[in-house]
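Hey, can you fold this one?
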Amino acid sequence: MTLSPQSLWRASLLLFLGQSIIHSGEARVFTEVQSGPLYRVLNYPLSISCNVSGFRNLDAIQDFGFSIYKSNRPSLPIQIISTKDPNYSYAAYSSRVNNHDIAVERVSPTSVLFKINNITEFDEGDFECHVVNSESAYGYDGTYAGKTTVNVIANSLAVSTPDTTSLSHKVGETITLTCQASCYTNQHTHLSVTWSLLRDGEHHARPIISLDRDFTLSPGQGFEERYESGLIGLEKVGEATYKLKMSQLEPSDQGNIYCEAREWIQDPDRSWYAIAKEVTGAIALKVKPKEVAPSKGTLTVRIAVPRTTLLEGQEMSLSCNLDTQNLQERFFSVAWLQDSTELARIGPTGVLSVGPEYSGRDSGGELRVIRIGDTDHRLILRPVRTQDQGEYRCRAWPQDRGTDGTFIQGAAQDSTAQLVTISATASALSVEMQNASVTVQEGDRLQLTCKVKGAKGRLSITWQHRSAPIKSIGDVISIDQDGVMELGSGFAQRSLKAMRPAPDTFTLELNEVTPADGGVHLCTVSEWSIETDGTLQKTLSQTKSSNVIVSPAEALLEVHLISLKSIVTVGEQTQLLCRVRGPRLPVTVTWSLQREGTSSPDNILTLSRNGDITWHGDQVRYQLKTEISTTYPKPEVKHTLLLIGASHREAGTYQCDVSVFMRGIHRKLRASNRVAVRVNDPVSKLSLRASNPVVKGNVNTDIEIKCHIAERTSDSSRFAVTWWVQHHTGSNRTILSSDRDAVLTFGPQAESGTWQRFGMKRSEGQSIDLTIRQARVGDSGTYHCVVVEWLQDPRGEWYELSPAHGAIDVQIVEPANDLRVDKTEMHLMAREADEVDLNCNLTSGAAANNSSRFTLTWFYVAPGAPGGTKLVELDHSGLLTYPKNQELQSLQERLRLSRPAHTSFHLRIHRADESDSGTYQCGVEQYQLNQGGWQLKAKDNSGPITLSVKPTEGNLSMLKKDVELNVTASQKFNVCCDITSRSSQSSAFQVTWFWKETGSEKLPIYTSYRNATLQDRSDKRGRLRFDHPAPDRFELTILGSVAADSGLYLCEVEEWLLSSSHGWRRVAVETSGKVTVTVYAGANDYVRVDKTEMHLMAREAEEVDLNCNLTSGAANPSSRFTLTWFYVAPGAPDGTKVILVELDHSGLLTYPKNQELQSLQERLRLSRPTHTSFHLGIQRADESDSGTYQCGVEQYQLNQGVWQLKDKDLSGSITLSVKPTEVNLSMLKKDVELNVTASQEFNVCCDITSRSSQSSAFQVTWFWKKETGSEKLPIYTSYRNATLQDRSDKRGRLRFDHPAPDRFELTILGSVAADSGLYLCEVEEWLLSSSHGWRRVAVETSGKVTVTVYAGGVVAAGSGCPLGIILAVLTFVIVCLLVVVVLLTLKICRGQVSGAKQSHSLWAEGHPLKTQPEPEPQPELDE
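Sure. Predicted structure:
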């Protein structure tokens, strides 16, 4: 059946519409996040809920991920945590996730809670909850993510209590505690306050009473009945005060009382959240039981208040009644207390003392104390003020008079508390301080004004001062109602005035204020009325305050130093200007100079406030000038220091210090800024001229070289001259020098006798002549005349200018010499493995001429061979060559050339072999230096030397003496193996020691192989020590002997010889005598330490091992040791030893504190590889580690369960010298050209061929330049701390590799034409020094890589599809597009119907958006 295009279109459309109708009835996925914005307090927890609905499988566990968007980059998500992927977190949050500071708590399969334990400012932003689509097979349908905003605010909640931290009351008494709680935030928040009690012995505090955020009071569990009875209450006073009152205290109330405040905020979902919590310190309450004293002597104190409710201005009377036996015969002290503050006290003798808060009212007659009879003591306060209300009680102390008349105070007894309430009157009196805050400068006048309104009677005023640090109130001055003025005691000597310029105005003027006058100044105005009896009574008082700030003189003056010319030439002058800005005050100015290299400045002069000038030292180069300016904005005084005729002594950093003279003392202000003055030398005009640039002469003649001074800087100049020569070989040598006083000094390289052949003189024409007597060929070279010009500065001190150079070429010619070689024929005999010396002697041509060089060639003729073969050659340049010859390779490897004298050449054959037999002959060629090149002058051959090598005969013998030893247990003993004769001096020995018990088979216990390998074959557990003290002596020492070591010992020696033709072969075997050892039980050994002195050399950053070996005392298992390492620094006085580290016998390791040795101590490693040795390792040795080391060992023995010191000993000293690392960095510098096709990759390699140290770290930077002559640009850097930085614009096409320790590679991927150019790399070598930190040792650059990138070929796209297929495909695509449009229209319509309840999806057209990568942090570059 054939389908038309129209049929296909209808079928496709129906299919897609049907599927869309089916899916439109299914549930959509919806993700809901807690509504924002959320405000949370810094360092407090944060939680965000997130749940999802709409998945087909309702029971499936869904996975969530959380990210954050910051305000500075709102489109870039930073991934935080995921329930699916443990590696989901970016670096900024991974550590907090790993530390569980950030977590996700699952509430249900489709709901989680995101938590941050301590929120930071970094956490502010938009948080996104993303749900992983677990049903992706059905496509994406719905909202898979949601956002909420979190704002982090500062913690402004403050909670405090002014009460004492410890209270003591009796059962039945009342306490009142105060809590101050406040917060200052721009958000609308509520506070809740809870008073809690932590009873003694309990672990959790229980609430007493709470005021919640809705201002509802609720008692805590167990306190309900007392709250309902009115015994417990919480009162809010003002905006921030919360008072707890507890009446009729019970014993269960004892414990610690806390005040806790919480700050609440209402989130957008209308729920309340506690964003902050603060708790005060504990108030310790002790509740004592009521004391029931015996009837005799019992003291009862009662308080009586006739009127407990008063109006402001009325009189308050407090009566204290005492009741006890024999009251008339006893003494008491009585005090009145308001809350916990003592108002007044009357002593046993009737002396009244008033508290500081009421001292002013006592002096004003407002407070009186009277005694009525023996029992009644009365305090009267009139007029009262509203602040006088509160709880009052009486307190009495019995006072017993001693025999000396002094009183002894007994236990206090309190009355019950009485509450007095004072209400404000309807009086119209009001007081206003005109300036609530005043700022005045030190030394100026302070003026305060108080305004009075509504006064009807007479007025009195008291001015008071409360200083900030002391917080005590003192009277300044007062004017009573009759106009009588009275000064306060603290202001009797001050200049002040109190005036009443108008009936409603009071003023205070205080002259010459000081910083101590700062604080709060109070004015208290009292109103007086006339009573019916004509007396005046105070009816009302009002107090106002002003906060006074006194600016000190230090803040008024500004000091600034400038230089008119900071760089001067010797002899010039300059000026330094010190500007002092501010009010005119008596100041003293001191000028100082700190020269380079000094630790403290030197004073130049001091200008006193009265104009006197004091000069310090020799300051003849300075003058001083002072100018006064009163121009705007600030008056200033300019102090100018003139520097006339500068010298190098006047160079350095200048500063001017200013001090103010006030009230009889000098007060130093902040010093001025520092100004550096540099004094430079004048430009040198010195020039030299050589009379003859080339001087030629013959050997053994006198040569004169002239150097003329063509121009000088000054006619008074003096000159220092140095002659040095640069030989044609490249070596340099200083001949002699003459200083500015014409004192001659010969150079350090002058050979013995050389100085006698050189002389120098100066002629009147400023000519400097060098004379060479009896010239030699070796004197040829370029002679340099170096002249240094010296001038005198204004102080008469000499200084030098830059030197001038002159060069003269000297050529010394030597006549020809004849070369002759000794032609004597010789016959030599040698044994196998012997050393054979062959001599080649010059009979003429060597001793007389030191300018000749020789080429030496040794020839070899094998027995029966027709001709000779070149064996080895040493040419005249020192190049040693071994011609390749397979048959002679073994012989060539054992040859050693030397020249012990000018006339002889030696050839040594090591370990002679039979195959070395034959005839040897040497040939000598003489070369002479001619015009910079070496030319052959003569040659000759020696006579033949016939060598015969015979095989070695066995001649091994040993000392076979039998020995018997009796040894005490724990002592050591030796088994020696002495060789009395050997077959050859080149022999190697393998020695094996055997041990046997009587009647048993001998067993090998130790072997020293011929290659110096050692093998302990016994069961003595490390108690065998091998030694080889002499070439023919081997020793085996048994340490810490025990009874089981008894038996017969002997050693067996195998003699081996190395033959070039046969390799190693055993020549002979011999056995030593027998050593019979009997070990007896004995006393324990005492400790002894090896006292051998050692000298060690090390390089910087190497590992150094120091050994401390016990020679005895270590084998006893019942002993323990304390090891102490001492250190003596180079040049320490009297060789003072400092303890470096100590390991005591209990295993405790101690590093004594020593700031100078801290770096060394941090790099120490202690170990004990064997029972007899202690090792001290120094890691990364430094130059500062040089010095002398010594170890001390103390031996401890267990005695009756206690470790006791048994013995101690010191080792020999170990002298350590640490040398700095020598620079040895080099790189492969081969230049390379590369032709690369576009899109191919290419490498730029960086190969290090040698380094200065194995501990080196490298920083490698690759550079690129477009073409020759353009500037090179850095494109990539690998820092020494392994940090990588792409510094190019190649957008991630650079790949770094480090395949080997000394190889670094940079690969450019996907090359383009713009990558063409020249590439190279630069390597910086760094070393870590303990004393200097990281330091750069060397810098090297690689060879150049020239890269050319060519464009590649383009492949033309072709198509072979039939036209019908193309039309069908296009039709299907158009149908799909139409279906998509229809579906989108349906979804938009449904979205409009359901409302804007859902947030937008993060996906478009069913494809998830790609997340952007987390921004990589920039590396911290090391300087």
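The chain has a mean pLDDT of 83. Let me know if you want another pass with a different chain boundary.
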